[in-house]
Amino acid sequence: MSNPVQPLWQPTAEAIAATQMDQFRRQVNELHQQSLPDYHALHQWSVDNREAFWNQLWDFGEVIASERGERVLGKDTMPGAEWFPDARLNFAENLLRFRDDKAALVERLENGRRRELSYGELFAEVEKLAAALANAGVGKGDRVAGFMPNIIDTAVAMLATTSLGAVWTSCSPDFGINGVLDRFGQVGPKVLFACEGYFYNGKTIDSLPRLEQIVDQIESIQQLVVVPVARSPEQTETDIAGLDRAVSLRAFVENAPARPLTFEQTEFNHPLYIMYSSGTTGVPKCIVHGVGGTLLQHIKEHRLHTDISRNDSLFYFTTCGWMMWNWLISGLACGATLVLYDGSPFYPAAECLWDMADEESISVFGTSAKYIAALEKAGCKPRESHKLERLRAVLSTGSPLAHEGFRYVYRDIKPDLCLSSISGGTDIISCFALGNPTLPVYPGELQCRGLGMAVQVWSDDGKPVLEEKGELVCATSFPCMPIGFWNDPDGSKYHGAYFDSWPGVWAHGDYAEITEHGGVIIYGRSDAVLNPGGVRIGTAEIYRQVEKVEELLDSICIGQEWRDDVRVVLFVVLREGLTLDDELIQKIRTTIRANTTPRHVPAKVIQVADIPRTISGKIVELAVRNVVHGKPVKNQEALANPEALKLYEDLEALAGE
Length: 657
Description:
The chain contains 21 helices and 30 strands. The protein has 657 residues and is α/β, with parallel strands linked by helices. Among the domains are: 96-261, 3-Layer(aba) Sandwich (Rossmann fold); 532-654, 2-Layer Sandwich (GMP Synthetase, Chain A, domain 3). It has a 7-stranded mixed beta sheet with strand order 4-3-16-15-17-18-19, sandwiched between helices. The chain has a 5-stranded parallel beta sheet with strand order 6-5-7-10-11, sandwiched between helices. The chain is globular, with a radius of gyration of 24 Å. The two termini are 44 Å apart.
């Protein structure tokens, strides 16, 4: 069947041949006597021959290890697979392989401050901080936490921590005190790196009062290392003089005896990171990721799926509370220049990140679907106002990017680039579906499934389906599965999170479809899927239509239990000065009906002032659904604006027909 949808972009044959992805395909053909003609054949080979694939990726990615071992896969179960069971390696050593004067990290703060470290300087900074951590008694398996903005010092602290075989965990300084305690309180860090303040949306926020509470309530913290951001180093030292267990970053480093940087060799599945689920259904789950799986997966996603090399300048708009920060920092293993930005993406103006893209010659620009939608609503057209000469790829994640978002990027940002909508999660610290510089880009679709990942869509009866909606699963084990959850000795929480639906198969919790040309469409979270009249509808299908209504700035859609069924309720935020009248409601309903089905049309459309989101920008349909049904919402500290939930309590409009 021919596809009537035309691609928005496709690479030339010359461009394909020049990619690392195609180089890898040719290498597979040569080494394994294959004749794989294209990516789809390569993906099938990588799934059918997982051990050969991951083994070759190890070589291609030039993984540094003191031992590799003969075995690629020991026990092959989910959970509990044993990848490279005899290997010994260090994560930081792989990210610090370059020691030259090329820029490694460029830090940009909202207030205009800029700092840069070369690869050689980065190595020296990590060496000094690792000596200080070792002097403070940090060793293999200890936890070190960061309550930090996205700055150079955070990356240095992570690398110093992991060089010692210790475990890094972080969240951003906009987390409230309970959010920090819910996370770090569970994992017991020995050392906490924290900023004394930060800049956001034109304001300077003081963190010191929260630091006092954190140290007071987390007994495991032996040392609080305070990093100056909003104050000078001298003022910081003065202001923390009475703070329990606190020392300035400068004093922490200067007071430690010099020690050459060594890299503690650990097993492949040694804990590297502890990440936190951002759901609102209870205390955050503490997801433990291993050294080897994270490294291999990120090398694969950077070098093959994003074609990152030493020539690139990689930017991702993220905070240290989102897994995309960890993903971004792994770009050091490719030798690229990483641009770290901390602040509001719209301050002082909507185009501020594009100014930076020109100034820093950014070639790969990563952001969220929400940002792209907000940029379009703001009428921003970087193509007309900026050069963007080196920009060759835009990455989007966090939620499904609507078709209109795809078209906006090509129309108003740059026509000749690879727009990669990517999707995976904190659960795997990476992606199941992502970009590919050798494939065309179709509106609304993620280009492909990741190499080595047996990603399928299953119907309710556990059968793989194509061109039908169903549950996104990974049918066989893969190296970047979590080691487990912290404080889950029998593994029951971990098992319950992913393996309850189908034993031995990873069920990710996304409602998705694999298209006829091998792309993936994500329709939203499975647990937020609407079910009017027993028909499953992904919320992304409705959001896609709502994006077309100019009067609307934002929306959230839930299913309300009503008369032994479910009815669709759409909450909308309007542009300033507008109110929701019958005419606008009719316009919204007509737009949705024209491009979907009558079942998608909301029974109720209600104006609200704000939409609750997690700190990483995801809307929280489950939390709103719970409020509407009078149920409690736990873990509100995961929300950037928990006060918005009150807007959905006891709404008269939802009490009647």
